[in-house]
Amino acid sequence: MKKLNFLLKVTLVFLFACVISFNLVVDRAMATGDFSQSCADIKLDGSSLSAECRKINGAYENTTINLDDYIGNLDGTLSWGDHLFSRTCKEIYLGQLLSNREYVINAKCEKRDGYTYEATEINLDDRIANIDGVLEYE
Question: Around 114, how many Cα atoms within 13 Å sit in the side-chain half-sphere?
């Protein structure tokens, strides 16, 4: 009888740990970029990305993120981890990839020489996530 009680306790602890682990994995999965999978009416106005994003409870929330805080211009190439791309880039517009429907920013960005511009794009789904209805950089 003691063995049965012990086995039952071990089984319950194991199942509880599995449930907790699964919840942590699911919560983290919602926070790995890919905002376009759970957001609609996605727009770009200057460096501000706005969308209606689904919350965990299923409701939608209007949200905006300033991409100038996270994207920069590195010698004519849009790059994550820098700032203020909109100051040295022109013809900035939002595009969507046909292959997977992910959103990208297309622009012509100034090179170091200060005279020439390079056509470039950056995939927003790589680093922008929907965290419970709020657009966030990861």
Answer: 0
Tell me the sheet residues that pair with 71: 80
Closest CA to 87 of 114, 68, 100, 101: 68
Separation of alpha carbons 72 and 32, rounded Å: 21
Domain-located, residue 20: no
Report the C-alpha gap between 17 and 128 in whole angstroms. 30
Report the number of distinct structural domains present in the chain: 1
> What are the pLDDT digits (tens) for 54-85?
999 999 999 999 999 999 999 999 999 999 99
Report yes or no on 131 lying in a domain: yes
Which has the minimum average pLDDT: 23-27, 120-124, 129-133?
Answer: 23-27
Residue 48 within a domain = yes
Q: Which CATH number goes with the domain that contains 69?
A: 2.30.60.10
In a domain, 54, yes or no: yes
Residue-number span of the structural domain to which 112 is assigned: 35-137
Q: Alpha helix (H) ranges present in 1-138? A: 2-29
Cβ neighbours of 41 (radius 10 Å): 10
Copy the structure tokens of residue 135. Answer: 């657009």
